[in-house]
Amino acid sequence: MSMATKRRLIIHAGQHKTGSTSIQNALFRPDLEVAGQSWRYATLPRTQDHHALYRMIEHGYGKSNPFARAGVAGMRAWIAGQRGDTVILSAESFSELPPRHLARALAPLMRRFDETRVLLYVRPHLGAFTSLFVEHVKMGTLFCGLEKYAELEGDRFEYAGKLARWRDAFGDRLTVRPFIRDRLSGGSVIEDFLAQAFPDTTARHHGAPEKNVALGMHDLMRLKVFHRTLARHGIGARHHLGWPLADLISPGAPRDTVKLQLHHGLADTLATRYAPDAARVDREVFDGEPVFSDALARERARAVDTPLSLRPGEWIAADEINTLKALATVFAQSHGKSPMWRLRLHLRHLERQSENNA
After folding, report:
1. Is the preceding peptide bond at 15 cis, omega within 30 degrees of 0?
2. What is the mean pLDDT of the chain?
3. pLDDT (tens digit, 9 = 90+) per residue, 168-193?
4. CA 63, CA 43: separation in Å to the nearest integer?
């Protein structure tokens, strides 16, 4: 560690569907180079993020679980002992915590560093709405349509109040970055993160690929069939299958160019709903520049005239649907009773990511 460099703690807090997996993949790769500084991505073995720390904070500070708080204390001590001018934590799930809980849990750790920066990426309203809906379908946690999703989760995309609470908790340590390609350094969330995390030097990632990109409609409907069949067999925790299945069922996702888009009727309704929030975010976060208001107008204009069908039969052939149902049934009958399948799939998914990063 350089004696002349202040120690810096970087807390990357997401949000979901803002390139977090791509950032974590880049940090995990052995070819990331930072000129003139030592750094450490302080993950536990066989993990690529800090979701476990999120869970500890959620239970320890949200539910006052003393064992979870003890786990947080242990993680703080371990992270503080990591060698490096810059130490990085990353979990998009941090964005789901009340920021006061995250600040309280990590306060002793932040005091061990000369500087702390909290990086929060925020995706404009309509893009976030669509991408999170797609993620729910992929993970098998949602089977309703877009209109019903707007009723159930619409409040999730009201940003201004949430960002105000983040500012209250972290003050000038907080940096909010818009997840808009032409607003990101180099047009890449990886480049942008590295520029924010290492502002006084040069960091190069040698072409780390983007991860967890949105699936096209054909592959999304394949996953929907699989998950719906598992649900009929009473298989819970289907989200554990989402990423491994996406890895296996859709190796050629870029070829599937038809992506889910909002139709004009819903886009107009949502744009009207979120316009005041976008204006407030622009005033309070972006110094009055219409960053989110302009993004809302652009996304509204991209809506399609006719709603895209969410019925699998409209996208994939009947014989393929029957094959997917049969495979899901075999899985449910052979593995559904054992709790170990979740752990095995998760570990194999991490191994596959490590193999790709080697």
Report:
1. yes
2. 90
3. 999 999 999 999 999 999 999 999 99
4. 24
